Amino acid sequence: MNDLYEPVIGLEVHVQLGTNTKIFCGCPTSFGAPPNDNVCPVCLGLPGALPVLNREAVELAIQASLAMHCRINSFSRFARKNYFYPDLPKGYQISQYDQPLAEHGWLEINSDDNRKRIGITRVHMEDDAGKSIHDGFKDSSRYTYVDLNRSGTPLIEIVSEPELRSSDDAHAYLTELKLVMQFTGSSDCDMEKGNLRCDANVSVRRKGVEKLGTKVEVKNLNSFRFAKMAIDYEVARQVELIESGGTVSQESRLYNVETGETASMRSKEQAHDYRYFPEPDLVPLRVGEAWLARIKDALPELPADKRQRFADQYGLREYDANVLTATRAIGDYFERAAKASGDPKAAANWVMGDLAGSLKGREITESPVTAEDLGELLSIVASGEISGKIAKDIFATMFETGQSPRAIIEREGLKQISDTGALGKIIDEVIASNPKQVEQYKSGKTTVIGFLVGQVMKASKGQANPGLVNELLREKLI
Fold first, then answer.
1. Which residue in 109, 155, 177, 401 has a CA-CA distance of 20 to 30 Å to 38?
2. Of 237 and 271, which is predicted with more confidence?
3. Inter-residue contact 106 to 73 (CB < 8 Å)
C-alpha cells in the first residue's frame, strides 16, 4: 500500500446465537433441514402471527456482551428495519436501533506483535433473513430459489469502532471475537453454516489527517481469509482511485473470491432509508440487576484470562499458551492431562505434538485417547517404568484402540528393564560382539559409547533403562 495513506477499518459482525429455537417463535434452528421445513406463520411473516421473544437468546446475547466488556442497558427495545428482498418474508427485519442491548465494550487483540484494544460501539439483537440460492443460467434464464429455514434465527450484530488499521488487525479481531463467542458458549461460530459473517467498512486517509475518508462497506464476508483479502484489495483500490484524481463513492460492494476483487453492489443506505420505527408487537426488553448478576456469575473463564493463567500457572511460553487456548476444548483437555501427569510442560508438548499430529486437523473432542489416559502415560514415563521411545509406540496403540496405557504395557510386556543383573547380561553380549568399538572407547574415543548404548537398546527392544545402561557400560569398560 502507498505509505502516504492509512486504512481505517470497522467491522460489523453477525453472530448466530446457539439456541435450539428461533428468536421469536418455536421453530428449530437446526442446520441442513429440507428447504422451507423449519418454518411457521411467525417466521414466514404471515398476517396475524405475533412474535414472542426467546429468553435463552437474550441470555446468550447478554453473556456475549459481558465477555466483550460491554455495558448492558437495563432498557432496550426492538424496531422494524424496513427493506424488501425475496428472502425477507415480512418485508422488514426485527432489530434494535436507537436503544440496543449493550454498548461501549472492547476486545484486546495481538496484531503485528502489538497489543491493541479495539472499541465495540454496540451489540444489538435481531432476527436473520432467509437465504437466496442462485442457480446460474439454464435455457437463457436465471433461477433464484428461496429457503426460509434461516429466517428468524437469533443474531447479535457486533459493531466495532473504526480503530482497525490493517487487514492483520481485522483478522486478529475476528479470531479473538470468535474465541470469545465459543468460550462463552454463545455461538459455535461455524462459518460453513453461516453462523458468523461480517461486513467491513473500509476507508483510507492521508497519514496525519484526522478527518475520515469516505467509507465503503464490503458485504457478506464468510471467512477470515477472504475478509483479509477483501480489505487489502479495497484499500489498494481506494488509494489508486484517489491518486489518479478520482473520488471514492459511499457504496456497498461484494468481494468476488474468484477474481480477488470487489465489485459495486448498490449505493450505501442511510438509517433513514430503512424507515426504522419501534416494533409494535414486542414490549421493551428490561434487564434487571438480579438477572444480570446471575448471567455474570455463570460466565466461564475467557480466552485472554486463560492464556495468561496458563503462562503464569504452568510456566508455558506465550506461543504454547496461545495454541492450548485455540478452543475451549483444547484448554480443558490440556489441563486434565496436566493434572493426571503432574507435568504440565510434558502434557503441553504431547497435546501440541503427538496428539495434534495424530488427529490430523480433527477436533480434540474426537480423540480416542482421553486426557486422563495421556496423563497416565506421561506419569509412567516419568517414573522410569517405560522409556520415551516406548511411550511413542504405546501412544500410537492407544490412539488406534482407545485402550489405557497400563493395559497395553501389561499385555505387550513393555515395562522398562531396570534390573542390573538382566541388563548386565545384555551389556556383556554387546561388548563381546563389538570389540572394535570397545577398543576405541578404551583408547580415549569416549563418544563411541553412544553406539554401544544404541546396541543395548536394540538388543533389549527399547526396553532397557537408558540411564542405567550408560552407567553399567562405563563401569564394565574401565
1. 177
2. 237
3. no
CB-CB contact of 204 with 162 (8 Å): no
Q: What is the mean pLDDT of residues 362-384?
A: 94
Segments in 116-223 forming alpha helices (H): 167-184
Query: What is the band of 41 on the pLDDT scale with cuts at 50, 70, 90?
Result: very high
**Predicted local confidence at residue 85, as pLDDT:** 86
Q: What is the CA radius of gyration of the chain?
A: 30
Residue ranges matching CATH 1.10.10.410 in the chain:
420-476
**In Å, how far are 379, 396, 400 from 368, measured between CA atoms?**
19, 11, 8
Entry pTM: 0.84
CATH of domain 420-476: 1.10.10.410
Tell me which residue of 464, 465, 461, 466 sits closest to 449, measured CA to CA.
466
> Looking up cell 492464556, which residue turns up?
307
Give the Cα separation of 69 and 87 in Å (integer): 34
Q: Alpha-carbon distance 303 to 316, whole Å?
A: 15
Query: How far from the centroid of its chain's Cα atoms is residue 247's Cα?
Result: 38
What is the DSSP pairing of strand 141-147 with strand 154-160? unpaired
Q: From 326, 350, 336, 343, select the one nearest 398 (Cα to Cα).
A: 350
In whole angstroms, give the CA distance from residue 230 to residue 202.
10
CA–centroid distance for 30 within its chain: 21
Give the angle 383-389-395 at the CA atoms, nearest 5°.
85
CA distances from 326 to 302, 333, 340, 415 (A): 12, 12, 21, 36
Residue 450: what are its φ and ψ, rounded to 5°? -60, -40
- pLDDT, the chain, mean: 91
- Residue written as grid cell 486517509: 205
Question: What pLDDT is recorded for position 141?
Answer: 62
Longest CA pairwise span in the chain (Å) = 100
**β-bridge pairing 75-76 and 261-267:** unpaired
